[in-house]
């Protein structure tokens, strides 16, 4: 069953890889045809799966609260899916970080009066645009309507739909603008791209990402959650504490292999040739990054 569940997410990983390399516009037609899968997490809380990063959705008397919004061509499909769960439009839209497989729909939802909320560095990076160096992908500045209108530095709390929803910012990790979203009553957390469930994660050093920051952030989440917590990853199937613990152990073990080699002055090519992830490749190396690509990425993020 686990293998089958990973296969369900294969298309979203392919879309992420192609989107990062080519840009969302190159995949507009495919995205327009993309269906959104609704996965119940807790009462009134769902994980929505499509072509980009996994979304979180809280619905209730206060309205709808959406975490991330994938690519712009998917906005109408996302709205139609939400309409099957609630008759209210999106009131709050959270960006877990600035990458456009998580923020591509911002402008569309902003035009529909959603209040976009993110860490302050997300607004800074969206407003300026930039380059995701690992993929040599230039991202143009976002239009004003796509920018977060509420930003925070360390934490912000929402009291919405009977939930206490806590957003916290770890130190530089996947990027320098990450947000963790804790749904306290539902006992669930949306981790954005701090967690790729079952695959080697992308760490964006060109956006301030640090591998040790990812390790520390995951460790902090593990200390906060319990065995019954539902964990929504940025990519991959709905998860739990036991799986997150295995992910953390893998990250830490690989870091302890790669960091000393980099600190000793070895080049990226030399570290890649040493195959420091060999013990983990069978389980974790079947995502959109090959093991060699991932080693090159984490070399830059150390």
Architecture overview:
Helices cover 37% and strands 21% of the residues. It has 302 residues and is an alpha/beta fold. The chain has a single domain, classed as 4-Layer Sandwich (Metallo-beta-lactamase, Chain A). A seven-stranded mixed beta sheet has the order 1-2-3-4-5-6-9. It is globular and about 55 Å long. The N terminus is likely disordered.
Secondary structure topology:
Blueprint: H1 2-8, H2 10-22, H3 28-33, E1 37-42, E2 45-49, E3 55-60, E4 63-67, H4 75-83, E5 90-94, H5 100-103, H6 106-111, E6 115-119, H7 120-128, E7 130-132, E8 137-139, E9 150-152, E10 155-160, E11 163-168, E12 180-183, E13 188-190, H8 211-224, E14 230-232, H9 241-263, H10 268-273, H11 281-284, H12 291-300
Parallel strand pairs: 4-5, 5-6, 6-9, 13-14
Antiparallel strand pairs: 1-2, 2-3, 3-4, 7-8, 10-11, 11-12, 12-13
Helix pairs in contact: 8-9
């Amino acid at each position: 069953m686990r293998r089958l569940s990973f296969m369900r997410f294969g298309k979203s990983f392919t879309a992420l890889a192609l989107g990062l390399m080519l840009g969302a516009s190159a995949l507009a037609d495919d995205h327009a045809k993309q269906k959104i899968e609704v996965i119940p997490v807790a009462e009134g809380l769902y994980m929505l799966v499509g072509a980009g990063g996994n979304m979180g959705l809280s619905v209730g008397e206060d309205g709808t609260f959406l975490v991330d919004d994938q690519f712009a061509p998917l906005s109408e499909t996302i709205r139609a899916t939400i309409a099957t769960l609630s008759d209210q439009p999106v009131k709050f839209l959270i960006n877990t970080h600035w990458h456009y497989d998580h923020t591509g729909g911002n402008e569309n939802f902003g035009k529909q009066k959603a209040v976009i909320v993110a860490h302050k560095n997300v607004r800074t990076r969206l407003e300026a645009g930039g380059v995701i160096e690992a993929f040599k992908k230039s991202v143009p500045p976002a239009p004003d309507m796509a920018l977060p209108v509420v930003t925070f530095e360390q934490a912000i709390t929402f009291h919405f739909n009977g939930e206490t929803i806590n957003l916290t910012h770890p130190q530089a990790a996947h990027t320098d603008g990450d947000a963790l979203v804790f749904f306290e009553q539902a006992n669930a957390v949306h981790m954005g791209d701090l967690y790729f469930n079952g695959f080697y994660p992308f760490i964006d050093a060109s956006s301030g990402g640090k591998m040790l920051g990812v390790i520390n952030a995951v460790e902090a989440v593990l200390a906060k959650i319990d065995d019954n917590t539902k964990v929504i990853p940025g990519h991959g199937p709905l998860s739990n504490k036991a799986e997150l613990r295995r992910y953390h152990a893998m990250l830490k073990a690989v870091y302890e292999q790669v960091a000393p080699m980099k600190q000793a002055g070895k080049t990226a090519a030399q570290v890649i040739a040493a195959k420091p992830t060999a013990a983990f490749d069978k389980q974790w190396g079947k995502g959109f990054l090959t093991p060699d690509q991932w080693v090159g990425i984490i070399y830059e993020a150390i």
